[in-house]
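Incident review: delayed structure delivery

Summary: a single-chain prediction request sat in the queue longer than the usual turnaround. Root cause was a stuck worker, restarted by the on-call engineer. No data loss occurred. The affected request and its eventual output are reproduced below so the record is complete for anyone auditing the incident later.

Affected input:
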Amino acid sequence: MSAAEVEDPASRSEATIIYPKASSEHSATTAASAPRSGGSLALAGALLLALGGGWLLLKRRGMIPSRAVRADRKIVIEETRSLGNRQYLVVAGYEGKKFLLGVTAGQIQMLSTLDSEELES
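Output delivered after worker restart:
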C-alpha cells in the first residue's frame, strides 16, 4: 500500500464519514428483544428448592406430622438405652402394659414384664 492510496481522514467529505450508532439505542433494543426466561427460570428453581428444604426441615423436627403418625397406635417405644456395639435395652408399651426388651444385631428378646407398681417405686 502506497501513501497515495491511504486517505487522510480530514480530506473525507461528510457523506463518506461513517458514524457509529449510539450504544444506548443498541443496548435498549437488544435488552427489550432478549428473552428473560433464563433468569426467571433460575429464580423459580431456587424458590422451589428453598420451599422443599424448609418443608423437609419442618418435617424432620416433627412440626409437620407424617401419615404414619396416628393417635390409635397400640405399640409404643417408651424409652431406649444403648449398651454399645448395636445392643439396646428397650421399654416397649402395648395397650397399657410395658415390656423390657433386649435388642442385638441378631435377635430381640423379652427380658421381663414391667408393672406400673414397680415403675412408681
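Verification: The CA atoms of residues 25 and 31 lie 10 Å apart.
Action items: add queue-age alerting; document worker restart procedure.
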